[in-house]
Amino acid sequence: MLLRRSRLRWLPGLRSLLHYQPAWLRGDLLAGVTVAAYLIPQCMAYGELAGLSPIVGLWAILLPLFLYTFLGSSPQLSVGPESSTAIMTAVAIAPIVAQGDAAYPAIAALMALLVGLVFLVAYSLRLGFLADLLSKPILIGYMTGIGLVMITGQLAKTSGIPITSQTPLGEIREFVTGLANLHWPTVGVSLLVLFFLVVIQRRFPTAPGPLLAVLLATLLVASFQLDNQGVKVIGTIPAGLPRWQLPEFRWQDWPTLTASAIGVALVGYSDNILTARTFAVRHRYEIDANQELLALGVANLGNSFFQGFPISGSTSRTVIGDALGSRTQLFSLVSLGTVLLVLWWFRPVLAQFPQAALGAIVIYAATKLIDLQEFYRLHRYRRSEFWLAIVTTVGVLTTNMLIGVGVAVSLSVIDLFARLARPHAAILGEIPGMAGLHDIEDWPQAQTFPGLVIFRYDAQLCFANAEDFKRRVLIAIATAPQPVQWLLLNAEAIIDLDVTAADKLLELVRELQQRGVTLTIARAKQELIAELDRVGLVERIGGEHFYPTLPTAIAAFQQFRRSQIADEPPLTAG
Asked: Where are the transmembrane segments (predicted)?
């Protein structure tokens, strides 16, 4: 039993399939078939985008779908060729092929091998924690940006206007300037499909709207011979399956390709983890960031041995699967089976699918990624996180996914450090009739203890805020209504401290002692006390000045005050 559990720990997708519920089957089947209908023309296009033949784009979907089903931690993510990794692959390979005698497909397979190795090295170093820098505002902004990118990317398919730009802003510009060239039959098919999807979603939310839309659009095109009037269909789909083949090891190209592989892996992982976590939040399940590194690594390695090229997670296909009710990776196996059936027997049927209908389905799915209510909620809650989401969206639209996310993560870290460097601090007092101690700024009726300042610092002490901590302690003492005898530090938020903070705390102790103020500490954790002891601060402060709770520390101060009063000589008449 323990051995079985250990094996399943490495195969989260298999664990999910072993606990499959019959109620999930309908959604997984519909999602799998519809995603297959979408990914076939899409992956063929990405094969060309990577500089390879269209059939290689289809080959590159087969093994990743199978491997991720068992290794991936997301039950909904669809993996395979993607536009960003395809473009980066083409950019990296083209100069090498131009300078030598290397075959393009061989270098593409070698690139997939290197990308897979980068993922596996990152997995072995447990670098999945880097995904924790992708906060909720980044997810909101990223998915909004991706939604807009998906919409602009379908403008040519749904309008019939020739668009050559590869950037969202460029696509919009060419679309607006080319409105005179609208192809009305194509526009009509697109609008009918969009209208059909909106109506069926509202009236029959459980119906397989996208699949029905594609089939009806295909019937419409065939009945009225719209393909003869310029409505583009998928067209001939080549047959054949990839063969197992070792990548060509060209050691002279490894330095250049390795650098490019790191970039492709960064983009691919960013896209993968952002998409996976977005749907995990939406449907309340967990994603294992390190397991995703393993799954992508193995999928890319497998692709390299079957004449493929680098792959990652697909936002658009995941969105479509989610819209159809995908619940487990069984939908990927259904997509895989559908692709194989098409490659073997049903290529003529799929060849009649109108591209405008597929484009309309993508646009409809993309609108579900744009959640304006979330932006409004962020704006009300914290302006800095609202602008972080906006910057992420703008970054994705105006640069590329990696740069946009990189800028947003950098701003997120800066915002985190700003809050860490200048955290909230409070002077605590009692409120008549209310239990506990409270911030005197929040409660004007709070009463402090004469001669005692109870100070709470709501952050860890480190190099970033050590000077701020000392400054605010001294301000609290200087502004006290009566001369201060004890400073009581509520250390509940201070888990540990670095060398800079320890030295600054030592400076503070010396300065307080010169002023005749005794530093006492309450609610310090044992780990913190051990660190203070290692740097000599426990001895300097005095072990008797550490208290387990605030009430015991206050009682000790009151006892100290009573002893002082008792020791004072009586006043005599002059």
From this structure: 52-71, 106-125, 137-156, 182-200, 207-226, 254-274, 330-347, 353-370, 386-414
Structure tokens at 47: 């094969």
Instruction: Determine how many CB atoms are found less than 10 A away from the CB of residue 436.
Output: 9
pLDDT in tens, 426-476: 999 999 888 889 999 998 888 999 999 999 999 989 999 999 999 999 999
Q: Which CATH superfamily is domain 424-566 in?
A: STAS domain (3.30.750.24)
Q: Is the dihedral of CA 21, 23, 26, 27 positive or negative?
A: negative
Say if residues 375 and 149 touch (Cβ distance below 8 Å).
no
Angle at the Cα of 279 from the Cα atoms of 277 and 284, rounded to 5 degrees: 90
DSSP H or E stretch at residue 93: helix 83-99
Distance, in Å, from the CA atom of 369 to the CA atom of 379, rounded to the nearest integer, reads 18
DSSP label of 1 = -
- Per residue in 274-296, pLDDT tens? 889 989 988 989 999 999 999 99
- Name the CA radius of gyration of the chain, rounded: 32
pTM (two decimals): 0.71
Q: Which segments within 355-499 are labelled E, that is strand? A: 425-431, 434-439, 452-457, 486-490
DSSP string, 222-241: HHHTGGGGT--B--------
